Amino acid sequence: MEARPAVDDAALGREALHVLEANWMGSATVPAPGLYPHQWSWDSAFVAIGLARHLPGRGMAELDGLFQGQWATGMIPHIVFHTSEAYFPGPSVWRSSEHADAPPAILTSGLTTPPLHALAVWRLWRHTADVGYVRRVFPALAAQHAYLATARDLGGGGLAAIVHPWESGMDDSPAWDEPLAALPEIRYGYRTPGLDERHPASDHDRYVWLALRYRDAGYRPEYLRDEHPFAVEDPLFNGVWLASCQALAALAPVAGFDPAPHAEQAAVIRAALMERLWDGCFHARDLRTNRLIPVTTVAAFGPLLDPELPRHAVTALVEILESARFMGATGYPVPSCEIRAPQFDRTRYWRGPSWVNTNWLLRRAAAVHDLPHLVQLLTSSTLRLVRQAGFRECFDPFDGSGRGCRDFSWSAALTLDLLADTLAA
Ligand code: GLC
After folding, report:
1. Catalytic hit among 286, 393, 396, 417
2. CB–CB of 400/388 below 8 Å?
3. Which of 115, 151, 262, 421 is the most exposed place for a label (fewest CB within 10 A)?
């Protein structure tokens, strides 16, 4: 554990705001200075959630910056490039400017990430009651959801498929090992300084190859459905989508729209999650083999965000979460992969370390299911992590030491939210 002076709640909150101030670049917050110098989609949703009580106007501006990058298809890209700062894979890889559906005035990637944005807008609405804002952004959110329901239901069963590990938000999760291993051996030798140590070179080359294939197919949904070699239904992505559908249903009357289609979409996702991804726990489905991917990761708990998830599934998931497979055996939960899995690695990115954003999502899930002891445990252990190691990207689940970037925006933003709840309690 690296030494860090103990800080009280007020000082921790000030430090978090300071990080978010330093990472704000005028139209968006970068995830971390240096390594991630542009706007990342679900990072921005977490930042907006964290700012909702403190600087809601900035939270709104954050999402506005992201929505500028939305494609005419409704797709919200996983990266929006507001500046020309070097990053790989950057605009020359994605070539959004050559695509008729991409926004003309701003460069973006061609992939998406977990659709947390409606939930973020709902949080902003709850803390501001700003009807004008909700009316303004509602169409963008509805278009994003319509895109997922049509272009991304590649399995035809009511779930949205991810077509690249980067779309999961858990880039290097062991859940993607099997589908990646089925791809051809690729040797490009592209490297990203600072990110290289996170995954083997062969995986990185496959990531790039997958992105180029999709790009060269014109980002067409028919290509994704019929040919693209990576297509996976992920429980975290779909659990987040379901929660955002419920948020849209709550926002619809504020914006003057009918909530029913969004509530119905949530019901479709819930039924599909149980039918397609449930086997006593939630596992991702590889649509190319039509098999569930057996490794259990923190993504399994994504559907817990749904207050209407069947009771037996809630009970089973909470038992697994609290067991020695996840929270029970680690001092600094929640590990991103179950610790008894052969793929578990306490030091490697999404293959073991604990993350503030997944802890926050699980804490919300615990609140939704009225599990105060779990809310309390997740709050205190997450605050302990950042208090001791700083706003790091992720943390060793056994000793709490920080890993990855420093001054990581979502770690700071969600700390603000946790602190506000602690003070309010
Ligand atoms: C990494 C993470 C992803 C995040 C991005 C920017 O790629 O896996 O979830 O959005 O960094 O922080």
Report:
1. 393
2. yes
3. 421
